[in-house]
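A protein record pairs a chain with a discrete description of its three-dimensional fold. The shape at a given residue is found from the number at the same position. Here is what such a record looks like in full:
>
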Amino acid sequence: MDKLVEIFALQAGAAEMMIRGTTMYWVLYALLRISGRRDMGSLGMADMLVLVLVADAAGNAMSGDSYSLGDGVIVVATIVGWSYLLDRLGYYIPPLRRVLEPQRVCLVKSGRILASGLKREHITRSELMEQLRLKGVASLAEVDRAYLEATGEFSVIRSPRGIGEGPSTLEEDEPSG
């Protein structure tokens, strides 16, 4: 029984562990928010952040500098608490959601590539064409709108116009300049 108490005894203290968890959550959240979203895939940024931080906090509690499971539990609870709070605040306060989550970016409009959208997200024409091909698009004329969504996924709204009237998505040449 003494060994069990020793395992859960706090080594660093609850306040310190909450401050550490809060600091790491916000530092990583800010870094991920400004670093872009192309590689996020289908996980939302906050989801990925929570998974990484929870795994790291739990790992440190089991084998890192802290041998206390109690310290790890406090850090994990702090991280999950921030995630829960931000999800709720973003739902009830839409302007806050616009600050916390990236907005979708239009990359193709009416069959024409929007260079400003590609530049904003650092996406090459080749990468855009690859994503369109993965969505089954053979020609830009098939695309009414294509977006890079907040999650990092590409979405395509097909045009009711004809198929194959515009440049092929098989073209790999980057425009010069």
